[in-house]
Design brief:
The chain has 750 residues and is of the alpha+beta class. Helix content is 29%, strand content 21%. A hairpin with a 2-residue loop joins strand 25 and strand 26 (681-682).
């Protein structure tokens, strides 16, 4: 942003009289090099010095000044370690910190924090926005942050009112001395408080959950107004003075390089064109307007060259077919590495009178997030770089940009705007992000450059959801109960794909949803055959669970049918020693009005059936029932009932919204979405050939949240995986057709 800030509007802590006219970019630049002081032009007081020098030795999240700025008007600026992409993280952070600080979340102004060690707050020492980790992994830390700030405000109040701190209490936004009837707002105390020593973490008592005022309540989203009025700014919205625009034409297959440009001179002469550039695997046009750049770059006639033998990229073969790849995966026989192997699977299968075998596979998927990728790069006169880009891991991107440019990290200012949808799209994927192109072009032309990928170019370079073919074998006892299950998955996990090889240990993202199941089947084997494919892979919402739970939960229904068991009752039987999951399964049955598989005739005269499935991703347990009918040969999903147990929650309204969003994406993947490759080229370059779920096909969603009190789990991703198998199981019950692949639109039903 290139707007100068009025000094009178600067967020200064009370008591400071020398405001400094700093732009937002300069403020963020200062924090990016490790400054722990939050506030504009604030002197480094003793408390801040202590926080800075004790950072390495202190507990994560205890560097209060690194996060909080309490303004004279009693609003509170909080720098979130995580990025807001529609999941409600900013609001949740305000609720958690505000609860312990005793400050209404509505008074918070939440922004994304810059890169820096001070903002690493998760239990696992990582700083990413993904894996449904933001709230659950930072919950204790952010509570401590609020409690420490409250303790400092109480001490400041004691000094200002000249009373013992033990005589003081707080009410939302103020310190109160009940005996004298005096009180001071947090804004009035902020200047004094911020220069106090940060208390010892062990000395600060956290609020008892029974006293929670905001945690666990449906607090209004802090970002709702700006997003609904168009005031919210995303990377694609950013502008700076003197900025040029760029558009790109990628090689049709990854790994190909630029040969000759047959009409370069004509393109350079097109209206608005500034320059034409050759980039790795692409050509770009820089112009005064993006539309000029797009029209020009699409006009370039490029002689593309096949990948060189020494290319480090995962080149796409010109004869690659995704359908043929699925056949190859299904035929793979080994070697396999076991992730789970309990009991005597081979012996049980060999001796069983009743056996079931089936092969399942899934499809490639795009992320198809609403906002196309973009990046804005601007070099300053001193050679330093300022860059805006959507990302889910600030520190990782900063390190990568430093490596690419040769600049020291402190000479790079990375802005992380709101994400216009992500689902795992904005991690560090080589060749799948526009920021290297924006940096190169900005350096070449000597002016700021904003690169925007059209949807067609995005679909050409998006990293895709992995595929797998899983060969199942199951055995039943004389009573029809499962006694053995074997699942061997021929696949490449996303982490394996990013590293380019199979690691010493099995990639957990390859088998999650197959491994770790709680069903009491005494003999089980889960294994992986590593098969490296030509498609560049990445993380997709709920990662391995998004495909593996479809496989496992569908096959479990096949075992139930073979043994003459109702699939709901079968799950209850297999979960008989797991009270948490039993409670959850019964809850979704009650939520649906009582389990009934069908087929049955609904009130509108349509023939319907129901399916059930469960999933346990990211520390959260879920159970789903789907009700379907068939219209014009295709599946119509009428209702989705979901019971979800994340242990505990921060905001029930956000939980319900996340369940609805995850259900819509789960329905989209099982019914419609599919990235198909023929002769090395994607069939779809836009939504015309890559349909996503339209509103007319969205089901009614019914949610029941169960707080078991177990350790807090994730919310954004867990509601998705069980949706697809519940739908597939309902279709099988209704039609008698067992479909072992997604999407269901490839099939016609009667």
């Amino acid at each position: 942003m290139n707007v100068r800030i009025d000094p009178t509007a600067l967020p200064l802590v009370a008591g400071l009289t020398d405001p400094v006219n700093l732009s937002r970019r300069r403020f963020l630049a200062s924090t990016a090099v490790g400054a722990l002081v939050i506030g504009f032009g604030l002197p480094l007081g003793s408390g801040r010095v202590q926080a800075a020098t004790a950072a390495a030795a202190g507990e994560r999240g205890t560097q209060v000044p690194a996060f909080l700025e309490i303004r004279p008007d009693n609003t509170i600026r909080l720098l979130s370690p995580f990025i807001e992409g529609g999941q409600g993280t900013f609001t949740a952070m305000a609720q958690i910190v505000g609860e312990e600080l005793d400050a209404d979340p509505a008074t918070f102004l939440v922004e994304c924090a810059p890169p820096g060690e001070a903002f690493v707050v998760m239990e696992n020492g990582m700083r990413i926005t993904g894996g449904s980790m933001s709230v659950r992994m930072s919950y204790p830390t952010m509570r401590r942050l609020g409690a420490l700030a409250r303790a400092m405000l109480l001490e400041a109040g004691a000094q200002a009112l000249k009373v013992p701190v033990g005589e003081l209490s707080t009410e939302p936004g103020k310190v109160v001395h009940a005996a004298s009837g005096r009180s001071l707002t947090y804004g009035e105390l902020a200047g004094r408080a911020m220069d106090l020593p940060v208390p010892d973490v062990a000395s600060v008592k956290l609020r008892d959950p029974s006293q929670f005022r905001w945690i666990g309540k449906p607090v209004k989203r802090l970002d709702a107004y700006d997003k609904s009025t168009g005031k919210a700014l995303y990377s694609i919205d950013m502008k700076v003075d003197g900025m040029l625009h760029a558009a790109v034409q990628h090689a049709p297959r990854l790994g190909m390089t630029v040969g000759s440009l047959r009409n370069e001179d004509q393109v350079k002469a097109m209206p608005g064109v500034h320059s034409v550039h050759r980039l790795p695997g692409a050509v770009a046009v820089v112009a005064e307007r993006w539309w000029h750049a797009k029209r020009a770059v699409e006009s370039i006639q490029v002689d593309w060259l096949e990948p060189a033998a020494d290319s480090k990229l995962r080149g796409m073969p010109k004869d690659f077919s995704s359908d043929e790849h699925f056949k190859r995966l299904a035929a793979e026989t080994g070697p396999a590495r076991d992730d789970e192997n309990e009991g005597d699977v081979a012996g049980t299968l060999a001796n069983a009178k009743t056996k079931v075998e089936a092969t399942y596979h899934n499809q490639y998927l795009h992320h198809a997030q609403l906002e196309p990728p973009s990046a804005l790069a601007s070099f300053n006169a001193d050679g330093s770089l300022e860059i805006w880009l959507p990302n889910q891991a600030q520190d990782m991107f900063l390190a990568d940009i430093a490596k690419r440019t040769g600049l020291a990290p402190e000479r790079i200012t990375l802005h992380s705007p709101l994400l216009g949808g992500f689902f795992g799209r904005h991690f560090l994927y080589d060749s799948a992000s526009p920021y290297p192109q924006a940096i190169e072009l900005a350096k070449a032309v000597g002016r700021p450059v904003k690169m925007i990928w059209s949807r067609e170019e995005e679909f050409l370079r998006d990293v895709l959801r992995p595929v797998a073919a899983v060969n199942f074998r199951g055995a039943l006892d004389a009573d029809g109960w499962p006694v053995a299950i074997e699942a061997v998955s021929a696949t490449e996990g996303p982490t394996e794909a990013l590293s380019g090889k199979q690691g010493e240990k099995i990639d957990p993202t390859a088998l999650e949803g197959l491994s770790g199941k709680s069903y009491a089947i005494p003999n089980k084997r889960i294994a992986q055959i590593y098969v490296k494919g030509p498609v560049m892979l990445g993380y997709w919402r709920s990662v391995g669970n998004s495909l593996n739970d479809f496989f496992y939960e569908s096959f479990l229904d096949e075992l139930a049918d073979k043994g003459g068991k109702d699939p709901f009752e079968l799950r209850l039987h297999l979960l008989r020693d797991n009270q948490r999951l039993t409670t959850l399964l019964k809850a979704v049955g009650e939520l649906s009005g009582g389990w009934k598989r069908g087929p049955f005739v609904a009130e509108d005269g349509s023939k319907r059936a129901r399916g059930v499935a469960m999933a346990s991703p990211f520390g959260t347990q879920t159970a789903v029932i789907a009700e379907v009918s068939i219209e014009n040969g295709q599946v119509k999903v009428h209702d989705i009932w979901q019971a979800i147990d994340p242990g505990s929650i921060v905001n029930p309204a956000i939980v319900e919204a996340q369940v609805n969003g995850a259900v819509s994406l789960g329905l989209s993947q099982v019914l419609l979405e599919e990235a198909v490759y023929v002769d090395g080229l994607p069939r779809a370059r836009n939504y015309d050939l890559y349909p996503v779920l339209p509103p007319s096909r969205m089901a009614r969603v019914h949610v029941r949240v169960i707080e078991s009190g177990e350790k807090m789990g994730g919310i954004g991703e867990p509601p998705l995986p069980a949706v697809a198998p519940a739908v597939a199981n309902a279709v099988a019950a209704l039609t008698g057709q067992r479909v072992r692949s997604m999407p269901l639109s490839r099939h016609s039903f009667t």
